[in-house]
Amino acid sequence: MPASSPSITKSDPPGSAGVNRWLVLVVVCFAQFMVILDGTVVNVALPAIQTDLGFASSDLAWVVNAYTLVFGGFLLLGGRAADLFGRKRLFVAGVALFSIASLLDGLATSPGQLIVFRAIQGLAAALVSPAALSIITTTFDEGPDRTRALGVWAAIAGIGLAFGLIIGGVLVETLSWPWIFMINVPVGIAVVFAALRYVPESRIEGDHGGFDLAGAASVTGGLVALVYAIMQAGTEGWLSAPTLGFAALAVVLIAAFFAIERRHSAPLVRLGILKVRTLVAANGVVLLAVSGMFAMFFFTTLYFQQVLSYTPIEAGLAFLPFTVGIMGGSGVAQVLIKRIGLRATVVAGLVSTAAGLALMLRLTVGGSYVTEMLPSMALIAAGMGLVFVPVTLLATSGLDADDQGLASGLFNTSQQFGGALGLAVLSSLAASRTDGLLSDLGSGATRAQQLDALVSGYHVAFGVGAALMVVAALVAAALIRREDSAEVDVDEPVLVMA
Q: Helix, strand, or coil here: 202?
């Protein structure tokens, strides 16, 4: 990046008499709602997708990971592209591509097709999300109005997470699983036309440092190879040729990413920013925490439907207490940061989440939602609420204004990669445990024994997820200092899981 600050050029959309800023906010929030929604809506549909398309249990996680990996890998590149080529232009292109990919998802007839189309959806989301946030920050000047606009943006993230599971359940049960994707098409068309009419264009002028496509491709390819190696290990073994081959490819591509970043005139990630302790602490904690939390969403969805025989709607509604809990925890976090400090709040949240995941080791084939699942879900939800508020604030504290955008992008990227890597590890370990037990039982295993093996695999995932939370707590205790609380502003809106 050049030392001098580039200018930002704005223009009103053709045919409009000025810009209605709040209408612009509505338009971009609708698009962000779709992006957030698709991160969770698919979970309730996984059993139906597995049955209909013939997914192997070890490959089912790719329905989620194909989206999150590509989303995370190209998120920073999407923000750079929006700055260079125009935020409105990238926003419209991203929403259009997202809508097309959603239609293709719904029309998929094989596992391979769905995984490819989900990856295209992730690429589109990486164009939409940073462009949308940039549109807000360039449409609203710094002050109370921008604070309110960002507060709405943050609320959309929470609503999308909450309603994704419920909407997914309703659509799967009343229509069919393709509709969780195809519902995006009319919404996307409406957003495109509204954006063309009401959203102003803006871009950075005079910044011609380049476009780091090689960096984005190498880091995304490296992480895809790493995830594939981990998932292969669950079926082929950790020392098998496919596992080791893809692991080696991952190392080469990730090493290439760092080499590219050191030499590129406009790197995707300026590596010097990784020397900021608070940023490293926040990203390390969130990567580990999201890795463990994905165990809760992915495996409890399967547990509800495949073991307890919940309908998709019942499975979606079963997550409502989690939504309430994480919102409550987020509110309490802002009070606790002032009273006990940022580090203590984060550690308390991670310990609560670890305890909740550990309690899930009590789940049985004939388990009770009220006595077994609900206490675990309450601890996890409250804990995550306590964690994400302070680490989100910490991720951008102590940085120059020029680095705020990069720091926010890194934080969101860590969330996506953490979820993908965690899900790969946990699903691989769970599948290995289940397959091993079924192999010992042989072809004569009863339905009850098969379900016992399935739940035993879930136990492994929950146990490792709890261990990841403990490691995250140790990282937080080691890297976050007492004085860091003074550098964050708990009155600012927090973009949790955005």
A: strand
Say yes or no: 135 and 173 in one domain: yes
Q: Contact, 189 vs 14, CB < 8 A?
A: no
What does the pLDDT average to over 80-100?
85
Q: For position 357, what pLDDT does the model report?
A: 92
What's the average model confidence in pLDDT over 217-230?
Answer: 81
Instruction: Name every residue whose Cβ is closer than 8 Å to that of residue 149 and which is 6 or more positions away in sequence.
Output: 21, 25, 136, 139, 140
- What pLDDT is stored for residue 158 in this prediction? 61
pLDDT at 9 over 60: no
Last residue of a domain, one of 249, 265, 281: 265
Q: Which residues, 6 or more positions from 189, have their beta carbon under 8 angstroms from its beta carbon?
A: 99
Please check whether residue 419 lies inside any domain of the structure: yes
For 246-268, the DSSP string reads HHHHHHHHHHHHHHHHHH-SS-S
Residue type present at position 269: V
pLDDT single digits (tens) 313-345: 888 888 888 777 877 777 787 778 778 888 888
Query: How far is residue 45 from each of residues 5, 104, 126, 159, 262, measured CA to CA in Å?
Result: 47, 16, 23, 19, 42
Whether residue 194 sits in one domain with residue 61:
yes
C-beta separation of 199 from 120 below 8 A: no
- Structural domain total, the chain: 3
Burial (CB < 10 A; 0-12, 13-18, 19+), residue 412, is buried
For residues 343 and 484, the answer to whether their CB atoms sit within 8 Å is yes
Q: How far apart, in Å, are the Cα atoms of 412 and each of 49, 110, 126, 218, 242?
A: 28, 31, 11, 18, 31
Domain boundary residue, one of 179, 201, 223: 201
Q: How far is CA 37 from CA 41, 158, 286, 367, 416, in A?
A: 6, 10, 20, 29, 14
* Residue whose entry in the numeric block shows the structure tokens 């029309």: 107
Q: What angle do CA 190, 194, 199 make, to 5 degrees?
A: 145
24 in Cβ contact with 135 (< 8 Å): yes
Give the range of the structural domain holding residue 114, as residue numbers without chain letter: 19-201
Q: What is the pLDDT of residue 355?
A: 93
The alpha carbon torsion through 333, 339, 342, 346 (nearest 10 deg) reads -50
Is 285 found in the same domain as 252? Answer: no
Using the structure block, give the residue that is written with the tokens 């965690």. Answer: 422
445: its two tokens: 């295993």
Question: Within 10 Å of residue 56's Cβ, how many Cβ atoms?
Answer: 11
- Alpha helices, DSSP H only, in 264-403? 277-302, 312-317, 320-340, 342-359, 374-395
Mean pLDDT for 175-179 is 88
Q: With a threshold of 0.85, does the pTM exceed it? A: no
> Distance (Å, rounded) from C-alpha 123 to C-alpha 83?
17
Task: Answer yes or no: do 24 and 169 share one domain.
Answer: yes
